[in-house]
Amino acid sequence: MSILHAPVRILGCGSPLMGNDGVGLKIIEALHKSELKDLKNLDIEDAGVCGLDLLNLIEGARKVIIVDAILANSPPGSVHRIEGKDLLGGIEFHPLTSIHDLTITDVLKIGEQIQQLPEVVVIGIEIGSPANQVTQEISPEVLKGVDRAIKLIREEVFSSL
């Protein structure tokens, strides 16, 4: 992972070996091939299945855009924009669940106790159900959300720089 330095960071979360859970990483891969990769005030990073390590990745940023697979009882491939402050305030989709051991909400609540948090926006892509087999394949339904997620990310980035 490169040294993080920019005031705006895009962090893709997920496991490339757990099917639809890898959709956040698929989006990061696409962003590395886009015009965004050349912006000086922007970091684009694969955060993997980061858990509490997410706190190190957001430190020092002004704004962080987290891209992850979610379970929000919506059709697979649906894309949700969620404000970090809403997650911290207890206003969230029910049940908004990251498929990792610690949810993004859990990590942010811990983070607000030990460090100053940047503005956080979560771009969540609905995957429909947790991964239950090892595969690198992302379903066609979930892949339909990739372009919409990238569009939302671009809007966030250009409104922040």
Q: Which regions are unreliable across 5 or more consecutive residues at pLDDT < 50? A: none
The secondary-structure class comes to alpha/beta
Beta strand count: 6
Shape: globular
Q: What portion of residues is helical? A: 25-40%
Sheet bearing the most strands, described? 6 strands, mixed
Count of helical regions = 6
Evaluate the radius of gyration.
14 Å
Average predicted confidence as pLDDT: 88
Give me the strand/helix succession. EHEHEEHEHEHH
Strand content: 15-25%
Can you tell me about this structure?
- The chain is an alpha/beta fold and 161 residues long.
- The chain is 31% helix and 23% strand.
- The model has no long low-confidence stretch (mean pLDDT 88).
In short:
This protein has 161 residues and is an alpha/beta fold. Helix content is 31%, strand content 23%. It has six helices and six strands, in the order E-H-E-H-E-E-H-E-H-E-H-H.
